[in-house]
Amino acid sequence: MKSWIKRSLAGLFGAAVVVGSLSACGHRPHDGGWNASAEQMAERRAKMVARVAGKLDLDAAQKAKLEVLAGKLSEQRSALMAGAHPREQAQALVAGEKFDRAGAQALVDQKTDALKAKAPEVVTALGDFYDSLTPAQQQKVRDFMQRRGWHRG
Questions:
Q1: CA-to-CA distance for 16 and 87, rounded, in angstroms?
Q2: Which residue has the higher pLDDT, 121 or 7?
Q3: Predicted confidence band of residue 86 (pLDDT cuts 50, 70, 90)
Q4: Helix or strand or coil: residue 31?
Q5: Burial of 150 (0-12, 13-18, 19+ CB in 10 A)
Q6: Does pLDDT of 123 surpass 90?
Q7: Average pLDDT, stretch 122-133?
Q8: DSSP conformational letter for 110
Q9: In the structure, how many helices (H) and strands (E) does the chain have?
Q10: What is the rounded end-to-end Cα distance, in angstroms, of the chain?
């Protein structure tokens, strides 16, 4: 595999782990998450940062790195969500008699390009945050990930 593909996949994996881990720490209200305003998203991000900072007993420098990471993840989410609502995009693919393969591929390419464009920043922010943690804090993150896995509940 080419090195840029490996880096991209590693970045996506890392971002997925962080997003899954951090979102599992916070309560996600069911108030139209796809349609949340910028203010609502900022409020959710602040609550998530505060909750994670509390659970890991972060100092000010670590919390600042977590805030940078949360900001980068938010930017990546915004890039992914650019355009029509995901439900509308999916409905457009099956609107006719035949599945719109070209449209589906274009949609996948668009989302993949958005992920690839932001992945290096997310990976850097994730690395900076994780590397700033003490060994005990890193163990808490690993334990949490092992306990929770890829699902909520």
A1: 21
A2: 121
A3: confident
A4: coil
A5: exposed
A6: yes
A7: 95
A8: H
A9: 6, 0
A10: 35
